[in-house]
Amino acid sequence: MLLRGRPRTLGAAALLLLLLIGFFLFGGDPDYGRPRSQGAATFDGDPPADPRGHNRSDCIPPPPPPPPPKCELLQVAIVCAGHNSSRDVITLVKSLLFYRKNPLHLHLVTDAVARNILETLFHTWMVPAVQISFYNADELKPQVSWIPNKHYSGLYGLMKLVLPSALPPDLARVIVLDTDVTFASNIAELWALFAHFSDKQAIGLVENQSDWYLGNLWRNHRPWPALGRGFNTGVILLRLDRLRQAGWEHMWKLTATRELLTLPATSLADQDIFNAVIKEHPWLVQPLPCMWNVQLSDHTLAERCYSEAPDLKVIHWNSPKKLRVKNKHVESFRNLYLTFLEYDGNLLRRELFGCPCPPPPGAEQLQQALAQLEEQDACFEFRQQQLTVHRVHITFLPHKPPPPQPHDVTLVAQLSMERLQMLEALCRHWPGPMSLALYLTDTEAQQFLRFVETSAVLSARQDVAYHVVYREGSLYPINQLRNVALAQALTPYVFLSDIDFLPAYSLYDYLRASIEQLELDGRRKAALVVPAFETLHYRFSFPSSKAELLTLLDAGSLYTFRYHEWPQGHAPTDYARWREAQAPYRVQWAADYEPYVVVPRDCPRYDPRFVGFGWNKVAHIIELDAQEYELLVLPEAFTIHLPHAPSLDITRFRSNPTYRDCVRALKDEFHQDLSRHYGAAALKYLTALQQPRGPA
Amino acid sequence: MLLRGRPRTLGAAALLLLLLIGFFLFGGDPDYGRPRSQGAATFDGDPPADPRGHNRSDCIPPPPPPPPPKCELLQVAIVCAGHNSSRDVITLVKSLLFYRKNPLHLHLVTDAVARNILETLFHTWMVPAVQISFYNADELKPQVSWIPNKHYSGLYGLMKLVLPSALPPDLARVIVLDTDVTFASNIAELWALFAHFSDKQAIGLVENQSDWYLGNLWRNHRPWPALGRGFNTGVILLRLDRLRQAGWEHMWKLTATRELLTLPATSLADQDIFNAVIKEHPWLVQPLPCMWNVQLSDHTLAERCYSEAPDLKVIHWNSPKKLRVKNKHVESFRNLYLTFLEYDGNLLRRELFGCPCPPPPGAEQLQQALAQLEEQDACFEFRQQQLTVHRVHITFLPHKPPPPQPHDVTLVAQLSMERLQMLEALCRHWPGPMSLALYLTDTEAQQFLRFVETSAVLSARQDVAYHVVYREGSLYPINQLRNVALAQALTPYVFLSDIDFLPAYSLYDYLRASIEQLELDGRRKAALVVPAFETLHYRFSFPSSKAELLTLLDAGSLYTFRYHEWPQGHAPTDYARWREAQAPYRVQWAADYEPYVVVPRDCPRYDPRFVGFGWNKVAHIIELDAQEYELLVLPEAFTIHLPHAPSLDITRFRSNPTYRDCVRALKDEFHQDLSRHYGAAALKYLTALQQPRGPA
Q1: Residue A529: enclosing H or E segment and its boundaries?
Q2: How far apart are CA A266 and CA A268, in angstroms?
Q3: In angstroms, rounded to a whole number, what is the distance separating the alpha carbons of residues B598 and B530?
Q4: Could you tell me which residues are beta bridge partners of residue A238?
Q5: Where on the phi/psi map is residue B66: left (φ > 0), alpha (ψ -120 to 50), or beta?
Q6: CB-nearest partner of A421 from B311, B643, B646
Q7: Is there a contact between A538 and B536 if contact means CB atoms under 8 Å apart?
Q8: Strands B585-587 and B501-503, bridge-based pairing
Q9: Which of A87, A320, B7, B483 has the fewest CB within 10 Å, making it most exposed?
Q10: In a 10 Å sphere around its CB, with 0-12 CB exposed, 13-18 middle and 19+ buried, how is residue B225 labelled?
Q11: How far apart are alpha carbons A136 and A557 in whole angstroms?
């Protein structure tokens, strides 16, 4: 019997009620229960569900609904909270954008973490014909937090219930999506199904593709009431206007309250309540064809759908990560998921032809700036790279900001895939917070995710924030990356490092102590210099103290950084003085100086015009000097550069005279801007530049 | 006037003829020239073209044709020749497969180069529900080579004319595609347009989206005759059965011969002849909606199509590489192209649900083998990687095999993206042929292409064959890669090297001389050992002679390879003896020996079970020894390992005990197989293994 575990009389009464409503609605239509002829078929008059446990909408190919008008704006709502959900929602949105031909308005109900991530992402993504609105999930919590729930995420799930009041009152229709669905078709086809709604129907849903609501999965399994197998709420078509009119809020609260008299909590969050309401008011629901929500949960019955349906439209995952290679069907679905997981999101920045839409903020200026570039300019590639707006996904992995401490320091650096292996060593050397910008493709971002997940050292650290900047263009946008990492540092001080350096084990503690001792907070405007060394050997035992470092230096196992090829980069640090120094000492700026420094978080940004190899750090130090930062060398601080194969950019710099000419041109323009900004005070930088020197 | 440059009387006569035919065919239909009502609209009765220069099919949204039956096999023909065209065709096929829901039969008319590439590719790709047939383009050449042509590729273009006789006689319908088109939709929708053909129509084409055939592009511009703007042959629906019946071969040859009396050659290859035939027999053509061939050539008029059409279905490129960022429309199209260029082709190995199709060759055994793996096995990842069939694209870039020489040697190596920068140096050190396997994602393969194109050193070399093996799985399939590179070496001898080694400048010449001197060809079964050294320094001046190398060795600037951590790997080479040696000397195998050797091309393959780090070369040397190869050390040969950051696999090997256990398990299984194969003779390897030693 269907309603096992619930009072039988109540079940029987509900069934009777349902039949009566059905008769009332369909007026004893002689076609009831029989398939209709193709031409006249609509779902409007179909009964919402077959009480024997199988909603009839399953796998009957519906007539193709008329497509929505070419440029109609489609509305989509998604509830999203936390770091991992934010990654999921991006994959969903990529699949949505890939197939869509209509302008979209995304309504995102988010917590603070997801909002921070997604706001940055969409702002930098600049996809044409997509509007984004955010709604504060925390403000909605009180409306659902009274419902006993089996897990925290369920609270966010429950928020789908309050969308009719949370979304703007003039919004009449919306498609509501779980973050774990992937589109395999144009969402306009789903939107078109609103046309199948009868005058009263307000909720479009696909039948549940499991036996959960039949209540026979195990002994004493007591699911919430539902019509037959019930409906799955991973994909919902909502007529918000009708729900508001029908008193939806009152309706679901009444049902939930009543059910909670006999049931301890919801198991499947909003889905339990939607089903209970629908069981009570079946006229509300318009069943949707199964292919609009192919559910790949445990014990799924989805094969019934996908072996018969002409086409699959939306795949709904429970956890794609768990899907192993064995089930070849699941493997096929997984490929679709991976398609969008790894899809280059930059390619979705394509306009909708023939739909006049306001361009995304900043897009017009960008177009104009790009249009002004001369393709014949030898430095075209540099100019284009400088103008590129990279998609940015901040805090790609779960991250816990450190508790505020007045002298705390975040290590700031940037890297690409080939330096990933530095991360574990870096974590061992720097126990404090880090803010790292990673320059990756979408595919590499997934490899990076797996890399962190399989590393015990990295997954143990919650104070390392990884910010993915998506690759675009052929030159490494080094200063843009540094600025992303710098902007996301949350401590009052930052150590501006590079990824191929390992700091002294004691550096983190020593820096905090030095900052406190030097009373930097607000009183002195200083940049603390961390002297840099290098080893040419892979197999290298890291010095545990300054004394040990000096021994290695004397033995020729270590050198001061770039001693052989670019001594002026660090000469002003005055290594001879450092050997003997017991206290911090002040040094003067000189041409080409590029020390590694600790500065307040609000220090000047790096000049984003420097892309690829050359002058990117030098320009930043000039900026610090121009803004009158004292340069103070710390006597016990050191950091050591490890050897690596030369980067692509340095190779190009060395082999390509045009590349070098372009770096020179950028330098000149930088100096012009400097003079414009600082006037006569900037003269010394120009004078220094004009003295003959070694390589750039 | 339309037919500028052709005799006016002829033009006028043709126009008159056309009008008469039109009247005859459509019987003075009163709807002629007017749009029909939506419900009844078909293209059957429409005139093929408006002689005022604009075919009327443009941008009138056709009624959606009925989709073909769910599992109907769709036929596609493509002409493809050479290395670059083969790359193009793969991008086209990826777009085709991405959207298709039907089984496909691809008919590929290829030259020997393309056949070699595509046969390997499709064999290793193993896409379900795709059949491939090859047709020898060289055999078809005589049928079209009499037509004067402006360029060689045109000869292959012309082959589209002979498809009705070249394809199997029972093949009635086929979609013919140029290699430079990209699908943005399901090809079944295109196939469905066959249903619009009237009883006589045999060729479906989209109007040309340029003014070329109007003949007014420049003074004395004399295009071939065409109806108005003519038709573009990048996408063709062919009713082969009707063409055969109508005497197509006779028809087009007659037209071509006649036109060539006054025109010197075809400018646009087959397209000129198709248009001339259609001009003469307009009843043959069924105009297709413009969105099925959106042509982005120079001076394109395609915007007329894409600004109005509800949807774009097929994009036709002339040269996407030339499309710069400036035209924002073109940028949008370029994104579609890049989507499939960079799309992970592995993801297209998805089955068609509900279409019973014979699995691709080998797929069933592979499924079974994968199904037998134990997911709980600690070495599951290794087992899965060993079984993985990687997609292989041999000779990814144009390659000219070296002329056959009896003692020639090919350098064989494998690499992934992070070693790309070794290639230039390697080219400088090795002036002979190379066969290199590259382990890349589809996206990386494009980066690699650009890397070679922008390198003067690399693009000057035609004797370096690059074979792309597409990434799948987390362990580096080192021996599978070596086997791909080895199988593609075309000289009688191979130097089995690794990518982080640079050979002595003289090595290539010296090896060829040694092979000749030692009379290896057939008479001796020998492996010539090239002694290996290493430097720990990046900045390193490569020794130009053995004497110089010995000086560096004595100075401690060079070491024998892996002297510090794995001396047994090269100890049997006997470096002390090598110092003094004037002639090749024989050495004996000992445990863990893994020298770099020169062997005949038909040497044993590497054991593909070794994936990731560990024992992959050792096992190969055992195999050589077991097959009684003499190990002869060459007194003047040397190769030097350059430093690099440790690979991901070596890092995992060092940090992960399970990884080491798995390598040990693989070793054990290798020895079991060895005993099974060589019996008692293999005992010595097992005995050697059981002696306690250093790291694996």
Answers
A1: strand A526-530
A2: 6
A3: 8
A4: A174, A203
A5: beta
A6: B646
A7: yes
A8: unpaired
A9: B7
A10: buried
A11: 57
Q: Which residues of B touch A99 (CB under 8 A)?
A: none
Beta bridge partners of A92: none
**Distance in angstroms (rounded) separating the CA atoms of residues B354 and B351:** 9
Phi, psi of B79 (to 5 degrees): -100, 130
CB atoms closer than 10 angstroms to residue A321: 11
Residue A584 and residue A191: Cα distance in Å, rounded? 67
How many Å is the Cα radius of gyration of chain A?
31
Q: Which two tokens stand for residue B517?
A: 């001197």
C-alpha–C-alpha distance, residues A28 and A26, integer Å? 5
Cβ atoms of residues A413 and A485 within 8 Å: yes
* Phi, psi for residue B392 in degrees, rounded to 5: -125, 125
Q: How far is CA B130 from CA A228, A353, B166, B356, B371, in A?
A: 41, 33, 20, 12, 23
CB contact under 8 A, A538 and B646: yes
- Chain B partners of A648 at a C-beta cutoff of 8 Å? 420-421
Residue contact A310–B370, C-beta within 8 A: no
Q: Helix %, strand %, coil % for chain B, to 5?
A: 40, 15, 45
How far, in Å, CA of A533 to CA of A553, rounded? 9
Q: Which of B347, B450, B459, B652 to mutate to test the interface with A (most CBs of A within 10 A)?
A: B347
| pTM for the model | 0.83
Give percent above pLDDT 70 in chain B: 86
Interacting residues of B16 by C-beta distance below 8 A, sequence separation 6+: none
Report the distance separating Cα B18 and Cα B22, nearest Å.
Answer: 6
Helices (DSSP H) in B175-227: which residue ranges?
187-191
Chain A residue closest in CA terms to B369: A326
Lowest model confidence (mean pLDDT) among A561-565, B42-46, B47-51: B42-46
Contact criterion met (CB < 8 Å) for A347 and B331 = no
The answer on pLDDT for A494 being more than 50 is: yes
Of B339, B344, B539, the CB nearest to A347: B339
Distance CA B233, CA B208 (A): 9
d(CA A466, CA A472): 18
Checking if the pLDDT of B245 tops 80, the result is yes
**Phi (first) and psi of residue B95, to 5 degrees:** -65, -40
Q: How far is B419 from chain A (nearest CA, A)?
A: 9
Q: Which of B328, B351, B643 sits opposite A328 (nearest CB)?
A: B351
Distance CA A223, CA B492 (A): 72
Residues, chain A: 696
Using alpha carbons, select from B387, B354, B438 the residue that is nearest to residue B608: B387
Neighbours of A575 (CB within 10 A): 18
Cα(B592)–Cα(B689) distance, integer angstroms:
8
- Smallest Cβ–Cβ distance between B328 and the set A67, A310, A351 belongs to A351
With H, G, I as helix, E, B as strand and everything else as coil, classify residue A616. helix
ipTM: 0.77
* Token pair of A519 as six digits: 């009373």
Residue reference for tokens 């780090």: B613
Give the count of alpha carbons within 13 A of A535, CB side only. Answer: 23
Q: Which residues of B touch A336 (CB under 8 A)?
A: 347, 350
C-alpha Rg value of chain B to the nearest Å:
31
Q: Distance of alpha carbon A21 from its chain centroid, rounded? A: 46
Contact B328, A351 (CB under 8 A): yes
pLDDT per residue over A433-468, tens digit each? 999 999 999 999 999 999 999 889 999 999 999 999
H-type helices in B316-421, by residue range? 328-341, 363-372, 380-387
A546 to each of A506, A570, A635, how far by Cα in Å? Answer: 10, 18, 9
Give the one of A329, A331, A644 whose C-beta lies nearest to B645's C-beta. A644
